[in-house]
Every structure is written in C-alpha cells, then in structure tokens.
Design a protein that fits this description.
336 residues; alpha/beta; 35% helix; 15% strand; binds nicotinamide-adenine-dinucleotide
C-alpha cells in the first residue's frame, strides 16, 4: 500500500522503515518532513494511507481533501487523537487507527523524572557544577516519601505513574470519571477533583484532551491547589491554561511546573529553533522561571515505545489492506 508519512524526523524514518521491512508484504512509504495541514494535504493525493503524529491537523477540510485524493486510512502513530475530527473522518469515508497502547512506562517514568528534577533542582545543579559553582543555596527540595500525589486520569499511564509514586512512599489520590479497580488495588484512593488538588503536594495530569478536559487546570482550580504544590503535565498542552499557570507561579501558589506538552507546541516542538527569534511570549516567559522545566513532547521517546508505536502502526496498515478487523480503530462516539 502507498503510505504518505507526515511530520517525520530522522528517528521516525529509521523506526518506521525497520518495522516496514519486517513485514511479509512491506508498504511503499514516502516520508514528508512537513506536518499534515490544509496547505500540505495535497501531498497525500494518490496515497491509500496517511500516517500522522501529535501536531498534525486533521480537521474536516483536510480530511475531505485526503478522501478526495483517494486516501482511505488515517493512521496516527500516537495515542491521543484530539487533533483529528473523528466525525468528519467518518463522513468522508476515512477509517482512523491509533496506537492505543505502547509503553505506558515511557510516559509515566518521564513524569516522575520531571517531578524529581523539579523537586531536587537537578537542572539548576547541572548548570551550576558546570561553572564550578558547588554551592547548595537555593537547591533545597523535599522528601517525596510521606507526601500526597494526585493523579488526574487513572488510565494506563496514570496507573503506572501511581504505582511508581506509591513505591516512593507517597499517598496516591486519583480522579477519573471512570474508576479503575486496579488503581484501588494498588493503593490509590479516588476523591473529587477539588479535594485532589487541595490535598496534593504533586499533581500529575494523565487524562486525554477533550472538550470536557480543555483547561481543566484553569485559574479557578489553580486557586485551590495546596500552596507550593508541583504540577506536571505529560498528557496534552490544552489541559492547562498556561497564562493562569504563569500567574500561579508568580504568586508562588504553584511551586513548580514540569511540562512535556504545551498548548501552542505545534510549530515549536520537534524542531531546532535555537538560531531563530521565538515570537511566542508565553513559552519564553515559562522558560525564564527557575522552577519550570519544559521538555519538547519527549515522554514517549524511548526505544521500547518507538519500536511498538511503529510496529503497531505498520501492522494496522497491513490489516486494513487485507480487509481484517482494526484492533486500534477510533470510532465516532455514536458508533462505540
Ligand atoms: P487511557 O485512555 O488509558 O487513560 C485516560 C484516562 O483518563 C481514562 O481512565 C479516562 O477515564 C480518564 N479521563 C477522561 N476524562 C477525564 C476527566 N475529565 N478527568 C479525569 N480523568 C479523565 O490513556 P493513556 O494511555 O493513559 O494516555 C493518557 C494521555 O496521555 C493520552 O490521552 C495522551 O494525550 C497522553 N500521552 C502523552 C504522551 C507524551 O509523549 N507526552 C504519550 C502518550 C500519551
């Protein structure tokens, strides 16, 4: 099958090509560095399948253009699908698959890395010692042992994260409209959202971005968090009202912010902009705080996760070509 692969970096090409080469009937992959959006959708004309990533923009107009060009399958090489208009895809006759599960450990462990770095000021110590500054002033952290950690979204990633934090000796609170017996069995306690933010020393976001969760961490909720709590977001940028978070950092109510995702990350992340002027004042303000760590959507980026993401994506395209059921199909809500 002819597959147009958008938003590709060198490492994507390597892992996708390896997964493709391992198939009994490999596909014809064409890699584009450009993201899929209205201006680039024409590149996919004549490709039966289109493969995209987190910041590609598959709105109704793009999907109609893809369908018009002969595309029948949209394969997301990621878990979240907030960037695809699923109803419009169905209306255009496009089927959509994602990678529902690869390594929940990759993202959960990255969230823990952000917490430890923020708490123990590892980023600051790294810079100081490179300049022969071995002073400790300003580097004091707190023990995680005995603290309370709030997990918003106790799905696959949230549960792994909760288990790790329980291992540190933390009390783990969870909030999720769909409670998981596994989360309770591993010692987690479900509470209302307001109680979770009021009691937690560390809050970690692991729910998907939907109209319901957009800016779930807004000015009002940030106003209820425990003074000096840390907030970590490895899920989707739109969950946090970034300007409200900046205000909470300025007052000290938010004691630290670790983000792997950012509302306006499309156009910034996954590229080297070190020689350019960044016009986004919000990200510039964020990176000026000593108690903010930004990573560029790399939580998924482990060898294990990349191998599974690319293998699952190629297997889904093969299943579609063979007319087999699609295990990771994303259906419009009314068809579920
Ligand atoms: P999952 O579907 O297993 O779990 C999501 C959980 O969130 C579910 O239990 C769901 O009930 C819950 N939820 C839904 N609405 C909620 C709400 N309003 N409040 C609280 N919880 C709510 O998904 P997962 O595999 O754990 O992934 C979670 C998210 O992580 C994905 O949607 C994706 O956006 C993000 N993600 C980020 C990266 C990265 O590299 N940074 C990689 C993979 C996934």
């Amino acid at each position: 099958m002819k597959v147009a692969v958008f938003s590709t970096q060198r490492y994507d090409r390597t892992f996708l090509q390896q997964a493709n080469d391992a198939l009994p009937r490999p596909h014809a992959l064409t890699f584009f560095e450009a993201p899929l959006e209205r201006e680039t959708a024409a590149l996919a004309a004549g490709f039966g399948a289109v493969c995209i990533f987190v910041n590609d923009h598959a709105d109704a107009a793009v999907l109609q253009q893809l369908a018009h060009g002969g595309t029948r399958l949209l394969a997301l090489r990621c878990t979240g699908f907030n960037n695809v208009d699923i109803d419009a895809a169905a209306a255009a006759g496009l089927r959509v698959v994602r990678v529902a599960e690869y390594s929940p450990h990759s993202v959960a462990e990255h969230a823990v890395a952000l917490i430890l770095a923020l708490d123990r000021k590892i980023h600051r110590a790294y810079n100081r010692t490179r300049d022969a500054n071995f002073a400790l002033d300003g580097l004091m952290g707190f023990d995680l042992h005995g603290k309370t950690v709030g997990v918003i979204g106790t799905g696959k990633i949230g549960r792994v994260f909760g288990r790790i934090m329980a291992g540190f000796g933390c009390t783990v609170l969870g909030h999720d409209p769909c409670q998981s017996p596994d989360f309770i069995a591993q010692g987690g306690h479900y509470v209302a959202l307001h109680e979770l933010v009021a009691r937690s020393d560390v809050i970690s976001l692991h729910c998907p971005l939907t109209p319901d969760t957009h800016h779930v961490m807004d000015e009002a909720l940030l106003g209820r968090i425990k003074h000096g709590a840390l907030l970590v977001n490895t899920s989707r940028g739109g969950l946090v009202d970034t300007e409200a978070a900046i205000e909470a950092l300025k007052t000290g109510r938010l004691g630290g912010l670790g983000i792997d995702v950012y509302e306006q990350e499309a156009g910034l992340f996954f590229r080297d902009l070190s020689s350019t002027i960044i016009p986004d004042d919000v990200i510039q303000r964020l990176t000026s705080f000593p108690n903010v760590i930004v990573t560029g959507h790399q939580a998924f980026f482990t060898q294990e996760a990349m191998g599974t993401i690319c293998g699952t994506t190629m297997a889904s395209i093969s299943a579609f070509e063979a007319g087999l059921p699609l295990a990771d199909e994303v259906l419009p809500p009314q068809n579920l």
